[in-house]
Amino acid sequence: MNTDVLYALCDTLGPSQAEDVVARALEDLASRLCLVQDLAVTGSRNDLRKELRALRAVAIQVGLTGLSEVAEDVLTCIDQNDLVAEASTLARLARIGESALSALWDLQDLSL
């Protein structure tokens, strides 16, 4: 997690608005992580790519660079049509996503 991004949010928006941004990002990321897993099984590849790109954008916005990088890795696997690597990388995305959400949630309890 890049905490410099969170500090920059606080400096730019103020603590209250930064907290609102982080709270919305938490909800959005949790929703998108679930949707990505569902789309990987039953959805279209285009919809999966769209959600992965959106997940990356939100992750970058709140300093979750690791989550963003893994989402990019999944996109690479899709581009290469490597289903085994895609499945593995999606599992890694779920693990990293859970850890990132927990870390961001814990930071909400602290002053940004």
Short description:
With 112 residues, the protein is mainly alpha-helical. The protein is built from 5 helices and no strands.
pLDDT below 50 for ≥5 consecutive residues: which ranges? none
Task: Note the main sheet.
Answer: none
Helix content: over 70%
Compute the separation of the termini in Å: 14 Å
Shape category? elongated
Number of strands: 0
Number of domains: 1
Q: What is the average of the pLDDT values?
A: 89
Structural class: mainly alpha
Radius of gyration: 14 Å
Strand content: under 5%
H-E order: HHHHH
How many helices? The count is 5
Task: Please give a handful of descriptors for the protein shown.
112 residues, mainly alpha, elongated
Your description of this structure?
This protein has 112 residues and is an all-alpha fold. 87% of the residues lie in helices and 0% in strands. It has one domain. The radius of gyration is 14 Å and the shape is elongated. The mean pLDDT is 89.
What are the SSEs and their pairings?
Layout: H1 3-13, H2 15-42, H3 45-61, H4 65-79, H5 83-108
